[in-house]
Amino acid sequence: MSEKLIDSHKFNLWKGRLEKSGLDVHRVDELYSRRNGKGEVLFSLLYTDATTPEGDKIPPICFLKGEVVCVLICFIEIETREKYLLLVRQRRICDGSLTYEHPAGMLDSESDAASVAAREVFEETGISISKEQLVALNKDPYFPSTGTSDEAMYLFYSELELTSGQIASYHNQSQGLLSDHEHITTHVVPFLEGHQLITNVNGILLDFMYLKDVEDWTLLKQL
Question: Which of 16, 72, 77, 138 is deepest in the core (most CB within 10 A)?
Answer without folding.
Answer: 72
